[in-house]
Amino acid sequence: MVIEGNNEIFEKEVLNYEGKVLVDFNATWCGPCRMLKPVLDQVAANGKKIVAIDVDNDRDIAIKYNISSIPCLILFENGKEVKRSVGLIPINEIESLFEE
Amino acid sequence: MYDIVIIGAGIAGLTAAIYASRANKKVLIIEKQNYGGRIISAPHVKNYPGFLDISGVDLATNLYVQATSLGAELVFENAESIQNGINKKVITDKHEYSCKAIIIATGLDRRSLNIPGEKELVGKGVSYCATCDGNFYKDKVVAVVGGGKSAIEDAIYLSDIASKVYLISRKNLEEEVNKKNIEVITNYSVDKINSKDNIESIDIKSSNDSKNIKVDGLFVSIGYETSSEEFESVIELDDRGYIISNNTHTNLDGIFAAGDCCKKDLRQLVTAASDGAIAATEAIKYIEKNR
Ligand SMILES: Cc1cc2nc3c(=O)[nH]c(=O)nc-3n(C[C@H](O)[C@H](O)[C@H](O)COP(=O)(O)OP(=O)(O)OC[C@H]3O[C@@H](n4cnc5c(N)ncnc54)[C@H](O)[C@@H]3O)c2cc1C
C-alpha cells in the first residue's frame, strides 16, 4: 500500500527512515498523477515503500524540495534525496529508481 | 485461472472488461504503460457520444474506475506472447496467466524518430504526449516535430504554456497556425538531440542546410504504427500488421481482437468501445460453449 503522507508521516517515514523510500508528489487536479497512482500501488504491493504527498495539502514540503511540476517522484535513501523523476513513467522505470 | 485475459487497457480493453465483469467473469487486464491508451494525449474529446467535451485523461479515468470497481483486475506488465489451447496462456515480462479466452486490444504504438539521444532522453526533455508533459515547460522553449493534425494540435496546446514553440515539419504548415509564439520551420527534419543531463538543443537539417536550435523540450508527434508483432506467430495479421478479425474473432478459437489493432476502416473511440463490447460478449459465448 502507498502510505498517504502528511508532515508528520513525512518526517517519520521518509526523513527518519533507514533505507529507500519513494515519495510521490501529486495533486487531485493532476490527470497524469491519477494515472500514475495504480502503477505506484502495484510497485508498493511488490514490497517497495512509497509515500504520497499532496502538494496542495503539504505545500511546505513541496516548496522545500522545489517541486515545480508534478507528478514528481523522489527516491530518498536514509532521509536524503538520491534520485528524481518528473512526469508519467512506466512501471519498469519506477522500479529501476530503486536500483543502484 | 482467469476466464478472460485482456491485453491493453485502452478504450477497447477497458470496455471489454466492463462487459465481461458485469457478466460475472473473472477478468484480468494486462497493461504495459498506463490505463487509458492513446486517448490520454487528447486534451479535448468532442465526439464521444454522451459527452459534450471531455479530456482524454478524464474519459480514461472514468472507464478505469468503472472497470475496476466492477471487479476487473489490472496489472502493469508487458504481454510478450500468447499460447493457444483449450486453456490459453498470456506470458508477460513477469508472470504467466492461464485463462479460457484472450482479448487482444493493444491499439497502436507511437512512432519514434529513431535518432541519437531520443531513447535516453525520454522523461528528460523528449516527450510523446503534450497533454501529459506540457506543464513542465511553462515559459520554456519547446519544439514539436511532425506534419499531421496532431502535431499542429500539440503545437497550439503547448503555445499556451511555453514561451516559444518551434513546429518542425517536412510539410508547409504556415497556413495552419497563426500564433505569434509558434515559429513554423518547413522542409526540415530533426537529425540529432544534444544533451548534458537534460536536452539542450537539437540539430535540424534540410536538403541543403543544417542548423542547431536551443530547446528545453522536444515533442515527437509523427504518428502511430501497429504493435502486434508479439502475437504474429499465432495470430493472423495483414501485411501492415493489423489483426484480421471477423466480428472480433481472430483466426484462432477463443482469441479475440478489439480496437485500433484490428484491420478496419474507422479507428475512433466509439468503434474501439464497440469492438470491446462485442469481443467480451463473443468471449463469454465461447467460454459457455466450451464448459
Ligand atoms: C491526440 C489524439 C487525439 C484523438 N482524438 C480522438 C477523438 O477526439 N475522438 C475519437 O473518437 N478518437 C480520437 N483518437 C483516437 C483514439 O485515441 C483511438 O481510436 C483509441 O484510443 C483506440 O483505443 P484502443 O483501446 O483500441 O487502443 P489504444 O488506445 O492504443 O490502447 C492500447 C493499449 O494497449 C497497451 N498495450 C499495447 N501492447 C501491449 C502489450 N504487449 N502488453 C500490454 N499492454 C499493451 C498500450 O500501452 C495501450 O494502453 C485520438 C488519438 C490521438 C492520438
> Greatest contact pair?
A-B, 17 and 25 residues
Q: Which H/E pattern describes the elements of chain B?
A: EHEHEEEEEEHEHEEEEEEEEH
Q: State the shape of chain A.
A: globular
Helix content of chain A: 25-40%
Give the SSE string of chain A: EHEHEHEEH
Rg of chain A, nearest Å: 12 Å
Examine the secondary-structure arrangement and name the CATH architecture of chain A. Answer: 3-Layer(aba) Sandwich
Average predicted local confidence, pLDDT of chain B: 94
Name the poorly predicted regions of chain A: none
CATH superfamily of the largest domain in chain B: FAD/NAD(P)-binding domain
Strand order of the largest sheet of chain A: 1-3-2-4-5
Distance between the termini of chain A: 23 Å
Structural class by secondary-structure content of chain B: alpha/beta
What binds here, in terms of ligands, is: flavin-adenine dinucleotide
User: Radius of gyration of chain B from the CA trace?
Assistant: 21 Å
Number of domains of chain B: 2
Sheet-strand content of chain A, in percent, reads 25-35%
Beta-strand residue fraction of chain B: 25-35%
Mean pLDDT, all residues of chain A = 94
How would you sum up this structure, described in words?
- The complex is a heterodimer of chains A (100) and B (291).
- Chain A has one domain: Glutaredoxin (3-Layer(aba) Sandwich).
- With 100 residues, chain A is of the alpha/beta class.
- Chain A is 37% helix and 27% strand.
- The longest helix of chain A has 15 residues.
- Chain B has two domains: 174 residues, FAD/NAD(P)-binding domain (3-Layer(bba) Sandwich); 109 residues, FAD/NAD(P)-binding domain.
- Helices cover 21% and strands 29% of the residues of chain B.
- Chain B has five helices and 17 strands.
- In chain B, strand 1, helix 1 and strand 2 form a beta-alpha-beta unit.
- Flavin-adenine dinucleotide (FAD) binds next to helix 1, strand 2 and helix 5 of chain B.
